[in-house]
Specification:
By secondary structure, the protein is an alpha/beta fold. It has helices at residues 8-23, 51-60, 101-109, and strands at residues 42-46, 65-70, 74-82, 90-91, 115-116, 121-131.
Length: 152
C-alpha cells in the first residue's frame, strides 16, 4: 500500500490559500518569472519539506517559477530563473544531511546574488514577505485514508 505524502494536506491547504491570495492581487509584484508562453508558473512549498520533493514539483513546471515557501509565521518568495538571468549566482553549497526548503531559504538570505542548482537554474530570494496570518484561511485539507475492511 502506498502511503500519502506526509505533507499532502498542509501543502494542499497552502496551495489553495496561495491561489486565493494571488487571485486577490496580494502577490502581484512578486510574480516576476514567466515561462516561454508568458504565463507565471507558481510552485508552493513548505519550509519543513525535504528539498527533493520540492525539486520534483519545481522540475514539473520546467525549472522556471515563482516559488512561494510557507513556514509557520510567513510566506517567502523565491524566483527560479535561468542562469543567464542571474549571472552572479554562485554554486549552491553541498548540503549535509537531509536538506529542507527552509534551509534553502536561510541560505538564500545570506546570498543576495542567488545560488545555482545542478540543473542550471538560479534561485534568488524575492523581496516580498507576507505574514501567514494575512493569507486567506481555507482550513486544513484532510488526507484521504486507505483502510481495508473485511466482511465475514
Amino acid at each position: 500500500m502506498t502511503m500519502p505524502y506526509e505533507h499532502y494536506g498542509e501543502l494542499a491547504s497552502f496551495g489553495l490559500s496561495l491561489d486565493l491570495a494571488i487571485a486577490d492581487g496580494m502577490f502581484d509584484k512578486s510574480l516576476t518569472v514567466r515561462d516561454g508562453h508568458g504565463a507565471h508558473p507558481v510552485v508552493a512549498a513548505l519550509a519543513e519539506e525535504r528539498l527533493h520533493y520540492f525539486y520534483e514539483r519545481f522540475g514539473a513546471c520546467g525549472g522556471r517559477a515563482n516559488v512561494f515557501v510557507r513556514d509557520h509565521a510567513r510566506v517567502r518568495v523565491i524566483h527560479a530563473v535561468g542562469v543567464d538571468e542571474a549571472p552572479q549566482a554562485g554554486p549552491a553549497d553541498p548540503w549535509n544531511g537531509p536538506a529542507t526548503v527552509g534551509a534553502l531559504v536561510a541560505r538564500l538570505e545570506t546570498r543576495p546574488e542567488g545560488v545555482r542548482i545542478s540543473d542550471g537554474t538560479a534561485l534568488l530570494l524575492g523581496g516580498q514577505t507576507v505574514a501567514w496570518d494575512r493569507m486567506p484561511d481555507v482550513g486544513r485539507i484532510g488526507v484521504p485514508s486507505c483502510s481495508r475492511s473485511s466482511s465475514v
